[in-house]
Predict the structure.
Amino acid sequence: MKRVVAPSILSADFGNLERDTLMLNRSAAEWVHVDVMDGVFVPNISFGFPVLKAVTKASTKIIDTHLMICDPIRYVEKFAKAGSHYVTFHYEAAEDIDACIDAIHNAGAKAGISIKPATEPEVLEQWLHKTDMVLVMSVEPGFGGQSFMPYSLDKVRRLKAMIERINPHCIIEIDGGISADNAAEVFGAGVDVVVAGSAVFCAENPEAEIVKILEA
Ligand code: DX5
Ligand code: ZN
């Protein structure tokens, strides 16, 4: 798969959400990353369905919803039906991983599983055959603007080897602290999709920054 950048709406200007979404439509970013936080699984609350719907309505891109919520089975179907092309839930938050994946697939979306920095990728082995994407968190989930944790690259390399053996269609996404400064290394380790929040939205020229990350 060719390189993809998924700008995170969490760092957009919520007072100008449509403007920022239209800017992404014009940009080289093929995906838009939507971070949903419940204030329990992570120590922050972001937004829910009304904001997701506003983004999907204005966006022409692939909508990549990252659920940082407890008991994701309660909501995965609803997020899929609200216009997410990918719905990703956390391994650490789900009691029944198979049920979450099946519910997302039955609702017509692709299923992703995310792991926090302290979770090793080997725990996902038994589900990789039916998983469309693994999201490796390279910061503690909860906030944008944190520093990239270098150990994540080691996890990506191990995950890549497992995926090549079990299900080469499964893609790898990384999230947290990504910028044009580390994107080359991250793509080189086997990542397909990089999430970038502050690097894109705090840049003077977000569209140019997206190209810089893609071409890093
Ligand atoms: C953090 C979120 C990220 C966040 C990334 O919990 O999952 O998607 O928006 O922001 P940056 O790119 O600023 O680290
Ligand atoms: Zn995210």
In short: The chain has a mean pLDDT of 98.
